[in-house]
Amino acid sequence: MKMKAGGYQLKPALLILILNLCFYASYQLTELQICKLCTGTVLNNTEVGQFCSSSAGRIEGRCCLRNDNTSDPEHIIGLDLSNCSLTHVDDLQEASTAVMIDLSLNSIVNISDLVFQGFIELHYVILPADIVCPGGNTSWEKEDVKKGNRFCEGQKNMCNQTGQLSINCPENSLCGPYGPGFFECSCADNYRGYKCLREGEFPFLQVFGPLGASTVVISVLLWVTQRRKVKPL
Ligand SMILES: *[C@@H]1O[C@H](CO)[C@@H](O)[C@H](O)[C@H]1NC(C)=O
Ligand SMILES: *[C@@H]1O[C@H](CO)[C@@H](O)[C@H](O)[C@H]1NC(C)=O
Ligand SMILES: *[C@@H]1O[C@H](CO)[C@@H](O)[C@H](O)[C@H]1NC(C)=O
Ligand SMILES: *[C@@H]1O[C@H](CO)[C@@H](O)[C@H](O)[C@H]1NC(C)=O
Q: Which terminus has fewer CB within 10 Å in the chain: N or C?
């Protein structure tokens, strides 16, 4: 009887271990997929390679990864999918934190602006010369064509375009960047609902305020439901 009881006692620990392993494995898998989309690794003498070493990043496959502090998971800051026989690009979401993306030396015909929606950190993109910069050339500080590649540098903040009338967040909301050519309107404090017309505190924030991580998730979910994404023009 005692041994059986012992066996039962082991189970929760094992279960947690297995769950942890599964979580770890799936986390690693999803994290790595885009980095393994193409063969080879980021080379030292490439734009992404140089950027990675100057940013103290770690190269894994075609990605440059870094964590900003020890509690944060590593995230992609550079992605080099150049010379990879890509004919279309429709999902780069895993790399939405990237600062630099290289898609040169591929026979891509066009790329939807939507691919880069939400890429607020993106500062530098390299494309085949005949592909326009994401969001068009008004979304970038600088645009260059050299040696068959197009370089898009310095993502502009769509909320801060002098002379553009189109940016009209509803009253009681704030404009924020949301990737090249995109901006988002999020309700100002104390406002919520469609067009941020309703006034009132978020009860959830008050109730869950001191609970830590789960609060953040709830707040973010709430916040996501409160905002609208708008593309100008
Ligand atoms: C690339 O740089 C890393 C770190 O500086 C170095 O360890 C590695 O040997 C270099 N690889 C090549 C091919 O130069
Ligand atoms: C592109 O990849 C091919 C085959 O993997 C290689 O032979 C070629 O040198 C690469 N080109 C460049 C510019 O890296
Ligand atoms: C943007 O593109 C348009 C059309 O291709 C061109 O006429 C214009 O000069 C470009 N503007 C800049 C700043 O490169
Ligand atoms: C808006 O753009 C101007 C000129 O490009 C810049 O000097 C200013 O700091 C920007 N403001 C914000 C809030 O980004």
A: N
